[in-house]
């Protein structure tokens, strides 16, 4: 187990320097351009990522001259560094998309999803975490993407295994490195666990000894600046990735970065300020998708912003049905949590 002094050194993914070594996880349905812009305004995230993109769907859209996936909204224009995560189980399909991302979109990192546990991706499409049982296919996918994307680095995100009875992350880590990937991210649960229980950081840390030259990024249950500091202090990782905890708290990255520097951790914004952040987020979504679709998409984000606050359940019950800007602003004005002692709602 490592006990390195803080702050940790910058993370190197190929030629890309990620500083601070704190990454924003790709999360389907959430980490779109509006969310990334809000995170960027607070700072603290060394590398941001898109939602995971279905490679097969991208190719179909391209062949049929349809608009590229909504999940690539903003990618061409926004600030770098930026990673795009893609998934499928066919090396050539992945290569077609990877080379476009590297050459035309000029992304900083092409990340491969080998960790998604959702049935639609695993059992129906034999992708995501399903491929952990097929290391040879993983090798083929990674090596092909490395070949066509160079010099853009290719990375992989995995879970510990498909189930607690079939943990094979050490073997898979070797395959990922041998295939030429520039970094490995490990979520400390198995696919069968979904998001239940606790991430096993001891098992994440053990993987480091099976890697010769590429960095290891740990992911799972990092919901405070103190936990980020503890991850670097107690476990043998080169970087950390923050996922669900940041959805209603995009300032978490800035807090974690300050803690790693040894600076005083900035306090959470006041509830009034948090409401203003949410409204700014809402306007970005509506600008892209229009009022009707944007309002519906914003419902889930609004619930995240309220989570853990006094009156959150009451707010969620009302915001879950809004369908227009007028309704959204009205519900926020009436029901968004006010400055009171926080309790879990």
From TrEMBL:
- Start and end residues of each DUS-like FMN-binding domain: 24-333
Q: What are the leading ranks of the lineage?
A: Bacteria, Pseudomonadati, Planctomycetota, Planctomycetia, Planctomycetales
The record's active-site residues are 116
State the needed cofactors, names only. Answer: FMN
Q: What residues bind FMN, as annotated?
A: 26-28, 85, 157, 187, 243-244
Which Pfam family name is an example for this entry?
Dus
Tell me which PANTHER family the record gives.
Answer: TRNA-DIHYDROURIDINE(47) SYNTHASE [NAD(P)(+)]-LIKE (PTHR45846)
The gene name on file is dus
UniProt-recorded name of the protein: tRNA-dihydrouridine synthase
Q: Which organism is it from?
A: Crateriforma conspicua
Supply the InterPro entries for this chain: Aldolase_TIM (IPR013785), DUS-like_FMN-bd (IPR035587), DUS_fam (IPR001269), DusB-like (IPR004652), tRNA-dHydroUridine_Synthase_C (IPR024036), tRNA_hU_synthase_CS (IPR018517)
Keyword terms: Flavoprotein, FMN, NADP, Nucleotide-binding, Oxidoreductase, RNA-binding, tRNA processing, tRNA-binding
Signal peptide bounds: none
What does the function comment of this entry state? Catalyzes the synthesis of 5,6-dihydrouridine (D), a modified base found in the D-loop of most tRNAs, via the reduction of the C5-C6 double bond in target uridines.
Q: Which GO terms describe its molecular function?
A: flavin adenine dinucleotide binding; tRNA binding; tRNA dihydrouridine synthase activity
Catalytic activity reported = a 5,6-dihydrouridine in tRNA + NAD(+) = a uridine in tRNA + NADH + H(+); a 5,6-dihydrouridine in tRNA + NADP(+) = a uridine in tRNA + NADPH + H(+)
Q: Which family does it belong to?
A: Belongs to the dus family.
* Enzyme nomenclature, EC number: 1.3.1.-
